[in-house]
Amino acid sequence: MPAGISSLSRDRLRAALWRFRPINIADPDGKLPADPLIVYDKLLEPVGSLVASLIDALSRRFAAGRPGKLDHLDVEAALPAAVKSRMQEPIRAVRHVITLPVFDPAQLESFA
Fold this sequence. Notes:
Largest sheet: none
Number of domains: 1
Strand content: under 5%
Helix content: 40-55%
Number of strands: 0
Structural class: mainly alpha
Order of helices and strands: HHHHH
């Protein structure tokens, strides 16, 4: 997790991710990657989808004149089917990716 996130926030994020869907963080041989950053790369995609959905829900709430916290975020609906599928696949990367992830345009259509 990034250093700027408090341990409480990290714990909540982990609880949100692992409570609803397991993520395969092993390589095709069933071993953990030697570089932990490769695991973080794998976690970025579902976290990115969740953050995008959270920001969208908050902005819609604010635009409707109802600022404040959300009572609920539908985590299952926030993750596109393609992301859910990739979460189950083994890690195929052999090195840490230093570029930012790119969203599939179809994922962004729900935020229009």
